Amino acid sequence: MGNAAMSGRGKHRPVLLLLLVLAASSVLVAKAANCSAELEAAGAAGTGVTTEWIDAATPDTACTAQLCTDDFDTCNVASPPLSTLQLVFSDEFETEGQQLNVAAGNKRWTAEQLHYGATQDIEVYLPEQVTTEGGAAVITIDQVADGGSATALGQLAGGAVANVSSAYKSGFVDSWNKFCFTGGYLESRLQLPGNETVSGFWPALWLMGNLARGGYAETTRGFWPYSYSSCGGADVGAEFGAGGPALQNISACSDPPGFNRTKFGLEPGVGRGAPEIDLLEVMVGSSKRLKPGQAARPAKPGEQVYPHNLVTMQTAPLLPNGTTWTATDAAGKVVPGPGQYLPKDQLPNGMVTDLAWWKGPYTNSSDTPQTRPGSLYQDAVGAYASVNASFFTSFHTFGLHWVPREHVRWYIDGVLVYEVSQEALREQTNSTGYTVHERLIPVEPMAIIFNLAMSESFGYVDLEKLAFPSQYKVDYVRVYQNASAVNLGCSPPDFPTAQYLACNRDKYLLTEEDQSLVQGACMGAASCIQEAEVNFEGGDIPDGNGSALLPQQLATVKQCCQACQALPACGAYVYSTVQQMCYFKAPSGWTKVAAPDPGFGALAGVVYASGQTWPRGTNSSSGDSPAAAPQPASSSVGEAWQPPTNRSPPTASPRATAGSPSAPAPPPVPSSSGASVPGIQASAAALVALAVAMLLW
Ligand SMILES: *[C@@H]1O[C@H](CO)[C@@H](O)[C@H](O)[C@H]1NC(C)=O
Ligand SMILES: *[C@@H]1O[C@H](CO)[C@@H](O)[C@H](O)[C@H]1NC(C)=O
Ligand SMILES: *[C@@H]1O[C@H](CO)[C@@H](O)[C@H](O)[C@H]1NC(C)=O
Ligand SMILES: *[C@@H]1O[C@H](CO)[C@@H](O)[C@H](O)[C@H]1NC(C)=O
Ligand SMILES: *[C@@H]1O[C@H](CO)[C@@H](O)[C@H](O)[C@H]1NC(C)=O
Ligand SMILES: *[C@@H]1O[C@H](CO)[C@@H](O)[C@H](O)[C@H]1NC(C)=O
Ligand SMILES: *[C@@H]1O[C@H](CO)[C@@H](O)[C@H](O)[C@H]1NC(C)=O
Ligand SMILES: *[C@@H]1O[C@H](CO)[C@@H](O)[C@H](O)[C@H]1NC(C)=O
Ligand SMILES: *[C@@H]1O[C@H](CO)[C@@H](O)[C@H](O)[C@H]1NC(C)=O
Ligand SMILES: *[C@@H]1O[C@H](CO)[C@@H](O)[C@H](O)[C@H]1NC(C)=O
Ligand SMILES: *[C@@H]1O[C@H](CO)[C@@H](O)[C@H](O)[C@H]1NC(C)=O
Ligand SMILES: *[C@@H]1O[C@H](CO)[C@@H](O)[C@H](O)[C@H]1NC(C)=O
């Protein structure tokens, strides 16, 4: 990047001098570089660049990724054309002995205490089964000592909570509502647990939309794995009744009576969901079928490759009966349909790939080729890629290139193994005229999950032969994006999730401790009381550096109210209609003064939280509450959210999956106006008659 600038400057100089300048510059740049600085430099002209997610321990060599961003056939060659993507997130796990439980407050990850019921897991997940060791995040799966058992809560579809005991314990780590990204290249280097001969460990690394929390079945219901923003077609599978798939909860259709999505800041007409993309799901295969010494080999119809990694994108609604995305070749073999790609040529290292299929709702047999892969709850478009013994004894690199509405591609050790593109998810109509419109290559903010399970729902679990304890090691997790189009955050402006989570805390958070995972108030039932030509003096919110939180440039006072509501420490705000600047104030500690300055255009407001008749963050309307503003009528606050009518919950959701995340309210973006002290100049003028407005946003 420095080179490009230099070559511009040096273009009229003698060539030799230019080369010297370039060389010197490169050396200097290399020495001074770190990945945060590189991202800042690369993204200088762009928007939304933040370096906060980059682990300072990331080696300089990992600051960029060279990736083929062309079409599959162009990329599926020995030396494809490469583009540069910039590191935007990393965890190198270099700090030893880290705990990732909720209380540890890790910025990126949470190690869950959870029973994953959707896939009838044998183990329970405990935070203490996850630590950092030897420069990797390590998940240890083990048998509980002395024939004892471990317990964890598991949420069932419908919201009931089970306290589950198991003789086996393992770990589940997610970045739900902490770190999410939309599009980019995800890369992880990891070592698998167990070995290539014994079946039963199910290590995974995957992505799920933030609107669902992985393993919390009431949060996945109606969200997972919808990737659909069309009205109509979403009731495929309805013929299976209560045991069938849940309808899309937030669809592109109008809201059902009694439900209004705008309360959650969600756009009418936009379908929402929690899609899933799996980078790694390894299964050795049924040891009943795996003969001693049997090496990886191509699959026959109905057979899997052993051992193998299953790479899939999961989507809903299902295609209607009678349609498929696969094709059949002259020999009757199931091959990729339009928009799906497997490498045509021999892969290196004896690796083989094949299209994935398994039994689905319309074809039950897993022993014959299926024309319509998937299950009753999901269409899983994907492929198998073989892995060999070395994946269990050393680290290998897995990559996922996700471009919303375009494609998802998977790499193993740099080898492109499969692509599903938007074309594969095109609209289809069956012979009775039933249409399902295009499902989308995910557009939702996705969180990262890595976990180690055991479940017969994924493959044969040979509890007698499996060795305990065993370890699944993740050396690093890195995310790269186009520096001029960085899209990070669990609640980006075009696909917000923060309010949905804040207004449905009971669904997403089962324990008191978990409350910290969702920040901000539910604005849907909250309000701001506001006056004109008023200032609040004092009561600034400390920014942790000994000064006050910077104001934020916002176009409307409504956004200012909402920004304050989303910021836990905020209880009041002052907004300049002239500067379009929002100043944040604590719930108390400030004094109301008149500010009749037309050059500022002050509006000052106090935030009322859900169900309260006094300002948020204070205990009552009496005493020294700063709110000189009138109390809202109790009938107009705390309006209860009415869910739409229910469809019966499914009894299980399959996994090859589940998942989800949301993020703490982003801190206000410091404005470039140079304002360093929040609050506005107090006017000494006499109090003007105030227009008082009670605003329900
Ligand atoms: C890396 O670059 C960032 C951004 O320029 C800077 O804040 C940080 O101090 C640098 N870190 C090191 C270790 O040089
Ligand atoms: C990054 O985005 C810009 C602007 O959309 C585009 O011109 C460029 O080709 C992109 N680069 C890559 C590597 O995708
Ligand atoms: C779950 O059950 C275990 C043992 O039966 C018990 O110790 C634990 O307190 C229970 N947890 C909850 C949250 O009820
Ligand atoms: C939902 O609420 C918004 C904002 O209050 C309102 O404009 C809209 O008309 C409501 N929609 C329905 C279908 O009631
Ligand atoms: C077309 O799809 C609908 C929805 O899945 C299904 O009810 C109908 O039976 C299908 N028609 C055929 C011919 O399979
Ligand atoms: C799906 O379509 C096939 C062939 O048209 C038909 O035999 C089968 O009964 C249908 N299944 C369902 C569940 O509609
Ligand atoms: C598939 O299996 C289920 C349950 O075993 C059964 O109810 C359903 O009728 C079967 N469908 C077909 C198409 O055979
Ligand atoms: C196993 O796979 C790795 C990476 O794909 C390769 O480097 C190695 O040579 C393979 N080992 C064998 C025995 O095929
Ligand atoms: C694989 O692990 C099992 C224990 O689960 C052990 O008995 C077996 O010898 C191992 N095989 C190889 C090839 O390492
Ligand atoms: C401290 O100040 C710096 C520079 O303004 C800012 O980036 C950072 O977020 C502040 N820290 C906190 C905790 O607010
Ligand atoms: C509200 O009251 C509780 C219990 O009396 C107290 O712990 C808490 O600090 C009070 N909060 C505020 C903001 O005054
Ligand atoms: C959406 O979710 C709510 C709350 O879980 C539920 O009551 C409602 O039935 C769902 N709506 C649809 C259309 O599935």
Automatic annotation (TrEMBL):
Entry annotated with the keyword Transmembrane helix: yes
Main location: membrane
Any single Gene Ontology cellular-component annotation: plasma membrane
Endoplasmic reticulum keyword on record: no
Signal peptide: 1-32
Compositionally skewed regions (Low complexity) per UniProt: 620-636, 648-662
GO molecular function, one term: glucosidase activity
Membrane topology: Single-pass type II membrane protein
Domain GH16: 51-485
InterPro entries in the record: Beta-glucanase-like, ConA-like_dom_sf, Pan_app, Skn1/Kre6/Sbg1
Record protein name field: GH16 domain-containing protein
Originating species: Chlorella vulgaris (Green alga)
Taxonomic lineage from the root: Eukaryota, Viridiplantae, Chlorophyta, core chlorophytes, Trebouxiophyceae
